[in-house]
Amino acid sequence: MTASRTPDAFTDPREARGAYRDGLRTPTAGHCPGWTQANLISLPQPIAEDFHRFATRNPQACPVLGVTEPGEVSLPIFDGDLRRDLPAYRVYEHGELVGERTDVVDLWRTDLVTFLIGCSFTFEAALLETGVPVRHIEDGGNVPMYTTSVACRPAGRMAGPLVVSMRPIPAGLVERAVRVTARYPRVHGAPVHVGQPGLIGIDDLARPDFGDPVRIEPGEVPVFWACGVTPQAAVMRSKPPLAIGHAPGHMAITDARDTDYLVGG
Amino acid sequence: MTASRTPDAFTDPREARGAYRDGLRTPTAGHCPGWTQANLISLPQPIAEDFHRFATRNPQACPVLGVTEPGEVSLPIFDGDLRRDLPAYRVYEHGELVGERTDVVDLWRTDLVTFLIGCSFTFEAALLETGVPVRHIEDGGNVPMYTTSVACRPAGRMAGPLVVSMRPIPAGLVERAVRVTARYPRVHGAPVHVGQPGLIGIDDLARPDFGDPVRIEPGEVPVFWACGVTPQAAVMRSKPPLAIGHAPGHMAITDARDTDYLVGG
């Protein structure tokens, strides 16, 4: 990265990861358009196996795009160093957040299994391309996320509620939003619910559990997708001795293209 | 099941499983049309975790439709008893086939994790429905399968080559065959290769490694899909103390519908 280059100019995953490795701490929204961004979770064995079964049992919320061998620091879809090539990490001990860092090299253990989990950034690009507006992007905020009354299928020590993200969609475009996102089953896929938040235990759309509330205009319908916060909620609840995640919005930029996850396009 | 009922009349998974449980030993092709049939593999921990990572790393060959907790004998997509509701099982010890049985109740262990893996029966129905002929069904044989020179991504003790199935498709229908099967990513999805068997290490189409050879008519192109024998090949090569699989063609009939795995339909 040259000094004159702004982060917004990143188009190549290797270059972006190199800048993060050199200490650039920035949210990754808008970086490397067309390249898939992913959630990261590293867990020690054997709880990593519980998490893997949890993810397989709840694939819409926890789509595993890649999993390492214990101790490995790269993957075919991430030809870098998972310990330091994200802009920021969060470290949890026994379910408590104990720190945020720009690398986790000194915390690494040979029994850590790392999962890269699909992120809705991928289908949001597809929504925009097909003419479906995405309110929180228009407004420059984070997507609103809600804890639902829907329980995920547990696995071993891993259990927790389904967390959803919400996007208000003009009623006439809901069909298109369903159809477009359904083509991306490995990045949360089609909505899990349309229209009646009370039916999934959401009392007040103005008060999301994570992220920022968004305007809902007349004629718009709230549409809910399974959310990548679901695995983190389960991981935190299981209180593993150590867990490492990405800092919210500071994603793993992979070497996979968004179109790699497009089905039936 | 009444005495006058032929197995071909099965339309309900629960009824079919009950008949298998009562000792009916029959291949399941054609049973319960529209309901998803799956491969079964049960492995003891911790090798089950190696297999799970192997499957996640090779999702086209090893799509996990369901995974149990250790010792569990049912799943949401299989509301029966995995130890006896398939028509026949194969038992392996240290990688060697030691027997074939109609139930494995007495072999069951609390550390066995069972995986149900997607099967190409699902997309074959979709091919036929859309007018793409399936030769081995026309001819009443088993699909030809070949061990390729393509290595799967290993995980722990699990490693092995990609195994593919082959269907000869009229040249003008190859595009349709690709498109239709691509919509079923969790049952092997789109072909892994079209047209040049030598490029994936297949020397002689007339001599498949598993199944039966099929006619290739003038104007037809050999099309290759990742195959559910891949996980079994890796499991056998890893020589676990115990492994239980379904007997070839004697599949698990699930409570999932083929359309549950259709994406972008």
UniProtKB/TrEMBL annotation, chains A, B:
Gene3D superfamilies attached to this UniProt entry: PSTPO5379-like, PSTPO5379-like domain
SUPFAM superfamilies, A to Z: PSTPO5379-like
Catalytic activity, EC: 4.2.1.-
Sorted UniProt keywords: Lyase
GO MF, one annotated term: lyase activity
InterPro entries registered for this protein in UniProt: D-Glu_cyclase, Putative_hydro-lyase, UPF0317
Family designation: Belongs to the D-glutamate cyclase family.
PANTHER family registered for this protein in UniProt: D-GLUTAMATE CYCLASE, MITOCHONDRIAL
The protein's name: Putative hydro-lyase FB384_000791
Species in which this protein is naturally found: Prauserella sediminis
Organism taxonomic ancestry: Bacteria, Bacillati, Actinomycetota, Actinomycetes, Pseudonocardiales
